[in-house]
Design a protein that fits this description.
mainly beta; five-stranded antiparallel β-sheet; 7% helix; 260 residues
């Protein structure tokens, strides 16, 4: 465990997550920290109960939030290279073939979309594992969710069961077409009546592209994924140190098939 300086002896704060779930937290000051090649100083981190954050069964030690990802940065999620690249806005150049997706309003990442031919306004959510449509939107579209039993987890570790899911035959994001996309029937805060958009675009959509978010100009870029992953395999493996040194053929799986 880290022995961190706590700001104020009685500085407990209530953090609110999905469905107004409450988590009690305290601020801690970190003198210096490093995230990849990014070095930070005098950062305030908020504590959460031990073991609260997980991805499946894998424990997560923390979440990098918007206070670290400054508004002057461009976030480039390149899954083929296995990298998240942070670039200062003026120095950013979109990769070849990237398509600029304009947002519907300044200071939001709402994008114009069509789901099975119906025009919808969807919010780009880098933290969402699966895209979602609000139950009232599904009802308006005449769609009925199945009983998938999936659980939604927010950045504080709060868990809420989704109301099933639906599969859209086709969606379109400013002219970029995709087929067979799953949406959860879920609204993160059904008590907030001021939400005027129709759902969120999560990683099950964004992962099909090299996704780039420009926080300075509020612009989304979608670039095609690479067709040849073999050329980037050595670089990805080097980041794991010597963990794959004993593999007979690093970068691939070996399976046995039986007809019994």
């Amino acid at each position: 465990a880290l022995d961190l300086y706590t700001r104020g002896a009685e500085s407990w704060t209530v953090l609110r997550g999905i469905h107004e779930a409450r988590v009690y937290s305290r601020p801690h000051e970190v003198i210096d920290m490093q995230v990849g090649d990014l070095k930070l100083y005098n950062v305030v981190l908020w504590s959460l109960p031990t073991g609260r954050l997980k991805e499946g069964r894998r424990p997560i030690h923390g979440v990098i939030g918007g206070d670290i990802l400054a508004r002057s940065m461009v976030i480039d999620i390149d899954r083929d290279a296995g990298l998240v690249k942070l670039t200062v806005g003026p120095h950013f150049r979109p990769p070849e073939g990237a398509r600029r997706v304009p947002t519907l309003a300044y200071h939001t990442f709402l994008v114009a979309s069509r789901v099975d031919g119906r025009p919808l306004a969807l919010l780009v959510d880098l933290a969402a594992k699966t895209s979602a449509l609000w139950p009232r939107v599904l009802a308006r579209m005449g769609l009925t969710a199945d009983s998938s039993g999936e659980v939604v987890v927010d950045s504080f570790g709060n868990q809420v069961a989704a109301g099933g899911s639906v599969r859209a035959r086709a969606i379109e994001i400013d002219g970029v077409a995709l087929d067979d996309v799953r949406f959860l029937a879920f609204e993160p805060n059904p008590y907030l009546k001021t939400i005027t958009y129709d759902g969120i675009l999560g990683q099950n959509v964004l992962a099909r592209f090299r996704t780039i978010v420009d926080l300075d100009s509020w612009t989304l870029w979608l670039a095609p994924r690479a067709n040849d992953l073999a050329s980037t395999t050595p670089a990805r493996l080097r980041r794991w140190g010597g963990r794959f040194a004993a593999c007979e053929n690093a970068g691939s799986d070996k399976h046995a098939v039986s007809d019994s």
